[in-house]
Amino acid sequence: MIRHFATATATVAAVFASMPAAGQAQAPARSVTITVDARKAVGALPPSWRFFGADEPNYATMKDGRKLLVELGKLKHGEVFFRAHNLLSSGDGTPAFKWGSTNAYREGGDGKPIYDWTIVDNIIDTYLARGVRPYLQIGFMPEALSSAPKGTPYQHLWRPGFAYNLIATGWTYPPTSYDKWADLIYQWTRHNVEKYGRDEVNRWYFEVWNEPDSKFYWQASPDEFNKLHDFAVHAVRRALPSARVGGPDVATADGFMDGFLRHVTSERNYATGEIGTPTDFLSFHAKGSPRFVDGHVRMGIATHLRNVDNGFTKIADFTALASKPIVIGESDPEGCAACPGPQNAYRNGTMYSSYTAASFARIWDLAAKRRVNLDGILSWSFEFEDQPWFAGYRQLSTNGVDLPVLNVFRLFAQLGPERIAATSDAQVSLDAIVKDGVRGEADVGTLATRTTDGRVAVLMWHYHDDDVAGPDAAIQLTIANAKGRAAKLWRVDRDHANSFAAWQRMGSPQSPDAKQYAELEAASAMQPEEVAPATAPRGGRRFAVTLPRQGVALLVLDAQ
């Protein structure tokens, strides 16, 4: 989904807006009290963060793509999922912005199908070898099957700066033959089962297309999409009856979603003639809406969270599907990952990482409030191969060097499955942040868990919608009913685990030499600090933590 910033003039100075100028006095720290009760469980915390995706599937097999997939696989080996567009698009596998191809399907002179799984197998092999599994998006339409009007170009030539509607070319159309479409999906699924094994493929997610409610991705009616979906799901299940199938990965959970939910539960299936369509999970997208204000970016976390809440509410109100797992198939601060520039420079630094911590925490809270089964929160962010350093793409690394946001996912990976009681006297309430975002005092929030081996993991963030300088938070953290004697503190902020800040200190080189590259890699890594707890009442432990504006930290206290 695409939502552009307002067209205010952006300047490179905005990149530095969140840092105090040389010699500028830092405002006095804000006192914050955080209290955790290690004995008070408040529910499960699913590892919903373990989903990622990208438009460009072929980047996965390139040097920096392979390197980044290793890091994603390390987060939770075998339980990280990757969703990619263009897995069935026609072409030779050469990537481009918002494009990719595998040439899985073409036709001979007699009109008979010719299947070639070489490129798509290489992509999936690359995932699996690094501990990542497919969230397998079935799309887009192969050129030989596209019903696009004669003369419509098949591959778009979009690049950053072009009008977004230029991406909507021949791959966005329904098939000329639904029988051939279904057989393509059947043959692909059967091939995957034969190559990877039934048990492996049963762990994947299968969904059809992307954002069929958007004219940028689908050039037909909602009913025609339901038909496309039915034939694809039936074909997957013919090859693998136990496959996990769902959808519809709409841009917004609006009227299109209503029609889809009705169709899969109570309308006639286009492929089978029976009532309903197998549905193992439901998916929709939710994005924020940043804009430029007085020369700096102001994030739109409230819009993002309202979109999430709307999707949860819609599914919860639909009785037949209310308990189904939900994957927010794209969940991001804004819409266009491939749109760089100074107006998107916040993605390079700690604004993006603190937004990620604050937004994921609230999405977990919204899921609990609506009593829905939240399975995944998919970050549409990967990497862009061989592009300028820190160009402002929404990505997890730049030229193979990790950005601060990736470290927040490493913090998430250390959280446990059981949530425990935690409060902060400076945390913006759920209702307030959904309604208005964070426009007054900063949001200094917390989320705490118990790990499977009995440790207490406390996540803390210091977030504000406006990317401007602000006072540190001087946090007094008390963990009641815990007697651990050692703790580690992990930081992602202006001074820690921040390759962007290190690159700026170097003079922002666009061709770092080998020594500089190694320095950037080292600067991107989190270095845990050993912290000694003080004794607190109720047999607890107390810590003092200073957290800069847009910083994130995780304190892990050993089991008693």
Outline the structure in words:
The chain has 560 residues and is of the alpha/beta class. Helices cover 27% and strands 24% of the residues. It contains twelve helices and 24 strands. Strands 21-20-24-18-17-16-1-19-23-22 form a ten-stranded mixed sheet, covered by helices on one side. The protein has an eight-stranded parallel β-barrel with strand order 2-3-6-7-8-9-12-13, surrounded by six helices. β2, α1 (63-75) and β3 (80-84) form a beta-alpha-beta unit. It starts with 29 loop residues before the first strand and ends with a strand. Mean pLDDT is 94; it is low at 1-23.
List its salient traits.
24 strands; globular; 12 helices; 27% helix; TIM Barrel; 560 residues; glycosidase; alpha/beta; 10-stranded mixed beta sheet
Please mark out the parts with pLDDT under 50 across 5 or more consecutive residues, or reply none: 1-23
Q: What portion of residues is helical?
A: 25-40%
Q: Output the CATH topology of the domain at 46-279.
A: TIM Barrel
Number of helices: 12
Amino- and carboxy-terminal Cα gap: 47 Å
User: Given the C-alpha coordinates, what overall shape results?
Assistant: globular
Oligomer: single chain
**What top-tier CATH class of the domain at 46-279 fits best?**
Alpha Beta
Number of strands: 24
* CATH homology superfamily of the domain at 46-279: Glycosidases
Structural class comes to alpha/beta
Characterize the largest beta sheet: strand count, sense, and whether it forms a barrel: 10 strands, mixed
Mean pLDDT: 94
Signal peptide: 1-27
Family: Belongs to the glycosyl hydrolase 39 family.
Domain Glycosyl hydrolases family 39 N-terminal catalytic: 33-538
Pfam family, one: Glyco_hydro_39
